[in-house]
Design brief:
Strand content of chain A: under 5%
Distance between the termini of chain A: 57 Å
Mean pLDDT of chain A: 89
Radius of gyration of chain A: 21 Å
Oligomer: homodimer
Helix content of chain A: 55-70%
Low-confidence stretches of chain A: 207-216
Shape of chain A: flat
Chain lengths: 217, 217
DNA sequence: ACCTGAACACCGTTCAAGT
DNA sequence: ACCTGAACACCGTTCAAGT
């Protein structure tokens, strides 16, 4: 398939363009120019603009797939994928949010989800709950890196000062903590640890001592 | 401030346009036409296109703010906000993803975060961990509704069939479960319950019986 | 089979001009 | 103070034409 090589070449260039100048800079015209060709020459290979963005999702998932391991404990395997997902987001901050907004239906995507399913099953999560827990974990992972990439987490400091303190009592109580600049690497690790704890206490190690309470209405 | 009324009017129309025809249909020209005015007439009120989108974020947060309650247990208060966030996403599926990609710095945004901080403090989460846990919970909530709105969760069924089963063993093992169409309302409730359990077991009710294990490298 | 060039129907935004 | 109309520099995409 010589056309697939050309498609890969185009997607590589598109991802590079997104990394260097942002997702908004990935236009058919700019991408074509980068490849020394006309915008219209891209269409036979990638479909339309939407197809190009779907291609970027596939391209990133392919980059994530090597993080799938067969050795190690199920917990280690989940963590490896979680960490690799954030490393991917660091390499491609502009393109990464596409993963949250576009369904991935390629073989690579299914393989990745299959690895997560397998690890959750090995951890003792009942079959009926596995897809839900996979969605919970992947949603958090994709959402976290997207928030980081878009600066959603860095907004607090700007605005805290210009606000009447008596209207935000909890902010006042946390003022010392909020002064400190967070270590995002450490925070992500702590989040993964909490989520692993959740899975473990909920299903793996509950020798009858844990009763899940009904939620209040 | 008569100009603030006009701004609110413009934002209401923009949100309506997004609800009816998608976020891509919210162009300066289309919005102006809906208001019976020229595109250029919008600029003094909302800044530029970016200011318009920031305004939509504020508009949605204002709609979410009434979910903040002072009565009830801290857990009930967290759940009320989590449920209201998803109800908001149902009303505004196209605009909702903006919450994940744009920092919110309005007074309403700070008030909302303050309510979450207060509930977590009341639950017994140590001050040093409160901002992190708030980010974990809000990231999940925003990411989940964004995934739902964009159809990320509905992709599996399409592709499962056309895949060689021996390459995805966990999918095969889960085939019965994966046949069933998920109840998204129930799934979201179960996710909230698991996250509440995580917070409770991690901090509120750990009378020394829970030792957080170090994560494997 | 693969690429080009001109054209079409859109964008956001600037700017001078109107009232 | 608020709005308009024309214009500019862009978009994605169609289509006939080239080789």
């Amino acid at each position: 398939m010589p056309d697939d090589d050309r498609k890969r070449q185009i997607l590589d260039a598109a991802l590079e363009l997104a990394d260097e100048r942002g997702l908004a800079a990935v236009t058919m015209r700019a991408l074509a120019q980068k490849l020394g060709v006309t915008a219209m020459a891209l269409y036979p290979h990638i479909g339309d603009k939407d197809g190009l963005l779907d291609g970027l999702v596939d391209r990133m998932l392919a980059e994530l797939l090597p993080a799938v391991a067969t050795h190690g404990t199920p917990e280690q395997r989940l963590l490896a994928i979680g960490r690799a997902a954030r490393a991917l987001a660091r390499r491609h901050p502009s393109a990464y949010p596409l993963l949250l907004s576009r369904p991935a239906v390629t073989p690579d995507a299914v393989r990745l989800v299959d690895a997560l399913y397998a690890a959750l099953l090995d951890l003792g999560v009942p079959a009926g709950e596995v897809p839900r827990v996979e969605r919970l974990l992947s949603t958090f992972t994709l959402g976290y890196a997207t928030s980081e990439a878009n600066g959603r987490f860095s907004a607090g400091a700007i605005n805290r000062a210009q606000f009447p303190e008596d209207q935000v009592p909890a902010h006042r109580e946390l003022s010392e903590v909020l002064e400190r600049a967070p270590d995002w690497d450490a925070e992500y690790e702590a989040d993964l640890a909490d989520l692993m704890l959740m899975v473990r206490t909920r299903w793996s190690e509950n020798d009858g001592w844990l009763k899940l309470q009904a939620l209040p209405e």
